[in-house]
Design a protein that fits this description.
22 strands, seven-stranded antiparallel beta sheet, mainly beta, about 280 residues, eight-stranded antiparallel beta sheet
């Protein structure tokens, strides 16, 4: 689940010239397996309400109650399986961090890992009801991702007594990012030297994929979650400091994403709903 103000993967936001992020807001929800659905409706400024503890996007909302992050989902899934996706997602952090990492030297893109270790409870339509490991972060940017990056991967891998996260990127100026952090159950964050960057099989759309792994270990996909011409999300098994771990991995090819022909393809999955009227 991702809440957007300035929906970075919306072609409508790109076509608008990215002048008003508040006019392109979205709650993206993706579920997997039998009954899996994908929602990513681009909504106009009348659908946005913000307060200190609540973000309202049309019929859906994200609310922080001081202990839990509660997501109230009321969306329509995209083609080809158009249906309503409703329910509640509740994330309970074990601890909150206070760190922020620059992804570019000038701070035009930053990453904020609020709660890399959390518990989550999901109760959504289409039979998606479960509890398990959760994770909560945010990204902030002053420019389009494709303006500053060519390619990036991100991974979050839970270990026995901590979680490790890796950000690797190639920027458009040729410089690179190689960030590794570990977070313990008290919310303490330490930057670490990542193990070697190791390639593994490309996605179904042939997006290049790589992540961190101990020397001699070979990462592998355990489950494909989301596959697009420019993006891959999957469960990946790797080995970190001798400990096997299965975590969520993302790969993003922003050279592909820059191609104008791709925007029309994405628009099929990202409908635009300009107007919204609240009931009160």
């Amino acid at each position: 689940m991702i809440g957007f103000i300035g929906s970075v993967f919306s072609p409508w936001y790109r076509w608008s010239g990215r002048k008003s992020p508040q006019n392109h807001v979205c709650l993206n929800v993706a579920t997997y397996g039998p009954g899996g659905r994908f929602t990513m409706t681009d909504r106009g400024r009348t659908a946005l309400r913000q307060s200190r503890d609540r973000l309202q996007i049309g019929p859906s909302a994200i609310h922080w109650n001081g202990r839990d992050l509660v997501v109230e989902v009321n969306e329509m899934s995209a083609l080809p399986l158009v249906s309503r996706v409703q329910g509640t997602i509740t994330l309970t952090p074990e601890a909150l961090t206070g760190v922020e990492a620059r992804l570019t030297p000038d701070g035009s893109h930053t990453w904020r890992p609020f709660a890399p270790i959390a518990r989550i409870k999901v109760d959504l339509s289409q039979g998606h009801k479960w509890e398990g490991h959760g994770y909560w972060d945010a990204n902030f940017g002053k420019a389009a991702l494709e303006a500053d990056f060519k390619f990036w991967t991100w991974g979050r891998f839970p270990l026995r007594d901590r979680t490790v996260c890796f950000y690797d990127a190639t920027r458009r100026d040729g410089s690179t990012l190689a960030l590794g952090v570990e977070v313990d159950r008290r919310g303490e964050v330490r930057e670490i030297t990542p193990p070697p960057l190791t390639r593994f099989a490309r996605s179904l759309w042939a997006v290049r994929r790589e992540t961190r792994a101990d020397p001699g270990a070979r990462p592998r996909q355990v489950m494909n979650l989301l596959d697009a011409p420019f993006y891959s999300r999957s469960l990946v098994e790797t080995v970190i400091n001798g400990e096997p771990s299965t975590g969520v991995h993302e790969a993003l090819d922003l050279v592909r994403y820059r191609q104008p022909w791709l925007k029309s393809m994405i628009a099929v999955r990202v409908p635009r709903r300009r107007n919204w009227t609240f009931g009160d």
